[in-house]
């Protein structure tokens, strides 16, 4: 991931509704969610949701797929992982980080 991509992704997440929305999509996993479910779950207006989904999509953090009459939104896990890797690349002052436990958390 390039610096400009990281900045764009972080800027997209630097807003409370978008951060909650992205986290909800991460929890939903590969099945994703429809806008109707997101509106109900997050308690935001449909027009507000649409605006925030567009911002997350432009940052590459969310994908969209049409299934019949429905749109399914999913977290872009590859982009999310690239952002996390970018942020933690030199987390151990240049030494090799050790991945621990099942969640593969970086530990210095």
List keywords for this structure.
4 strands, 108 residues, 5 helices, alpha+beta, Arc Repressor Mutant, subunit A
Largest sheet composition: 2 strands, antiparallel
State the separation between the terminal residues, measured CA to CA. 22 Å
H-E string: HHHHEEHEE
Helical coverage, percent range: 40-55%
CATH fold name: Arc Repressor Mutant, subunit A
Number of helices: 5
- What is the number of strand segments? 4
Radius of gyration: 16 Å
Strand order of the largest sheet: 1-2
Tell me the structural class: alpha+beta
CATH architecture: Orthogonal Bundle
User: Low-confidence segments, ≥5 residues, pLDDT <50?
Assistant: none
Q: Overall pLDDT, averaged? A: 88
Q: What share of the residues does DSSP label as strand, in percent?
A: 15-25%
- Give the CATH H-level superfamily: Winged helix-like DNA-binding domain superfamily/Winged helix DNA-binding domain
> Overall 3D geometry?
elongated
CATH class wording: Mainly Alpha
Domain count, please report it: 1
Organism: Comamonas serinivorans
Pfam families: HTH_20
Protein name: Transcriptional regulator
Domain HTH arsR-type: 1-95
